[in-house]
Write a structure and sequence with these properties.
The chain is mainly β and about 325 residues long. It has three helices and 26 strands. It has helices at about 40-45, 140-145, 235, and strands at about 15, 20, 45-50, 60-65, 65-70, 80-85, 90, 100-105, 110-115, 120-125, 150-155, 160-165, 170-175, 180-185, 190-195, 195-205, 210-215, 220-225, 240-245, 250-260, 260-265, 270-280, 280-285, 290-295, 300-305, 310-315. The longest helix is centred in the N-terminal third of the chain and has 7 residues, at about 40-45. It is globular, with a radius of gyration of 24 Å.
């Protein structure tokens, strides 16, 4: 899996790239001394374990030369682990990289049937694992991809926005907070995958009127399609005003409606950025990957503005 997956967006699963695993809490330098295990103890932790969030993601653990090798079966990446105890393993130190620690769990019979990875849930032993069949690209035209175009916002995490456009008969996904772009092809009329990373899937859904309304990435992360809107200068005035940073109250921005765009002026250095309307409550500057997302108060008026998908500003009344 690619480290630029969203999906993250804050939504990383077990791996962040070929040959690496994404996360645990252990910090560099806190690793305990490796212990020697018996053949029986090594055998107890071997096997295939399945993600609780995506059943297509499985990791295989196998003992090799006093190490436990974790092979990521969706991209063939590997991580080498050493034993801290018969059930706790941590990654081999590599420079400044954080140490990854996993813990196996026994059931009531004493058999190891689960493995816990911090922030990634508890993976269950999968004794019925079968290699997935190869995904095939469906025959299609650019016109068939057009209905999927649009702006989508991560459900329950409004700071993330992605944009789908049709390019070279593929569906291009752009992460608007950093400008990264990924290409997808259809497997079925509603399901897409990446050719170089087939486990990165997209499953679209329609609303009751038959229009594309949302997409599920990795069979887990739900993105809602935003309403495309064109504001007049008069309508844009609802966004005007002074906003202060929630992290540093001394930093303020001034928002001004101008020529059917918004001007974001940083009051601490007078720098100005023009952002265009992309969707309801969402503005963007393509050249700078500069996004502004507004959040409404209980009366429906915008009272917060998030810049770059991370910097929150509150309206100064």
């Amino acid at each position: 899996m690619s480290s630029i997956k969203i999906l993250v967006l804050g939504v990383m699963v077990l791996a962040c790239g070929p040959g690496s695993v994404a996360q645990d809490t252990a910090k560099t330098g806190t690793k305990k001394k490796a212990v020697l295990l018996s053949e029986q103890e090594w055998k107890a932790v071997e096997g295939v374990f399945q993600s609780p969030q995506n059943n297509e993601m499985n990791v295989q653990f196998k003992a090799n030369n006093d190490q436990l090798v974790a092979k990521l079966l969706w991209n063939n990446g590997e991580l080498h682990l050493i034993a801290e105890s018969p059930l706790v393993f941590s990654s081999v130190p590599e420079g400044d990289k954080e140490i990854i620690r996993i813990s196996f769990i026994k059931d009531s019979s004493g058999a190891v049937n689960q493995v816990s990875v911090f922030n990634n849930g508890v993976w269950k032993r999968n004794n019925n694992y079968k290699p997935p069949s190869e995904k095939k690209e469906m025959v299609h035209t650019p016109d068939q991809l057009k209905p999927f175009e649009g702006i989508y916002q991560l459900a329950n995490e409004g700071s993330r926005i992605i944009d789908f456009t049709v390019k070279n008969n593929t569906l291009a996904l752009k992460q608007e907070w950093n400008g990264v772009e990924l290409s997808f092809v259809p497997e079925t009329s509603m399901d897409f995958f990446r050719k170089d990373d087939p486990f990165f899937t997209l499953s679209f859904s329609k609303d009751q009127d038959g229009r594309i309304s949302e997409v599920l990435a990795f069979k887990r992360d739900l993105w809602k399609k935003k309403k495309i809107i064109s504001y007049t200068n008069e309508q844009l005035r609802i966004f005007e005003g002074i906003f202060k940073s929630t992290d540093d109250p001394d930093n303020h921005i001034l928002l001004i409606a101008q020529n059917r765009h918004l001007v974001v002026r940083q009051l601490w250095d007078k720098k100005e950025t023009i952002v265009e309307t992309r969707a309801e409550n969402y503005f963007y500057n393509e050249g700078q990957s500069y996004s502004v997302i507004f959040f409404n108060d209980s009366s429906g008026k915008p009272n917060q503005a998030m810049l770059y998908g991370m910097n929150m500003f509150e309206r100064v009344r």
